[in-house]
Amino acid sequence: MTTRAVAWAGLAAAFGALLASFSATAQGVEPTWYAQAIARGDMGLNITEFWSKGAKMRAETVVAGHKVVTIVNGDTYYAYDSLTKRGVAIGRAPAAIAADDPQRRPFGKEAQVLLRQGAEKVREEVFLGRPCDVYRVTDRRGRREIWVTRDAKQLPLRIQVYVRSRHRNQNTDYVNWLSGLSISDRFFEPEAGIELDRIGFAEYVVRASTDLVGPVPVLYADLLRGKRGEYPLDLPGIGDDAAD
């Protein structure tokens, strides 16, 4: 084969791959995401790992030596302690299910939350080597500020929260953003051997009004209830001031 033929063959292969990529996007292939969130506050340090595939999400964080796992999949929200093998499976609110978008990640949406709370762009800067917009909102509750990438992905890189009522500063950094991972649907199911207390959403609301539901806290309550709390990152020590 001549050099020109090899070049044309390579070009044809690249063009074919590009067409396949466009075709996959057109057919609605669910995007996948991964990130780590490092949260620092008066309660100490928490590191949470997030994975998502379409609207499905899995989050893992260690609290007092126990790995708390949160899974959101279809009509069910799971929260369990992987050390004790106990947890709850809660039916999600219709509003939460209706808000699922298979083409958008279910976590890392703090920029949209702050904009709904009235945040304004205060400056532009390069943060961790990436051009960012910085948004801030200040109100009776305190101050929230976010660094978000200046592109269509709007990836949050840093979040700083000051809680006025408690004089607390809470900071979170998102690191190691990755997309295009190959993730099995089975990853978004509880592993074998987990003892789950299964309840409907209405029962959860009644029980949650007076007591903790299950052996671990309900995190990322917007994905269960269908609305976002007051503060942008629902992690232990960071989001415990959030109001549903």
Distance between the termini: 67 Å
If strands are numbered along the chain, what order do they take across the biggest sheet?
7-8-9-10-11-1-2-3-4-5-6-12
Give me the count of strands: 12
Secondary-structure element order, N to C? HEEEEEEHHEEEEEEHH
What is the average of the pLDDT values?
Answer: 84
Shape assignment: globular
Radius of gyration: 21 Å
Strand count, sense and closure of the main sheet? 12 strands, mixed
Short description, anyone?
With 244 residues, this protein is an alpha+beta fold. 20% of the residues lie in helices and 41% in strands. A hairpin with a 2-residue loop joins β8 (130-139) and β9.
Question: Could you walk me through the main structural features you see in this protein, from its secondary elements to its overall organization?
Answer:
- The chain is globular.
- Strand 2 (44-53) and strand 3 (56-63) form a beta hairpin.
- It has five helices and twelve strands.
- Residues 3-27 and 229-244 have low confidence and may be disordered.
- With 244 residues, it is an alpha+beta fold.
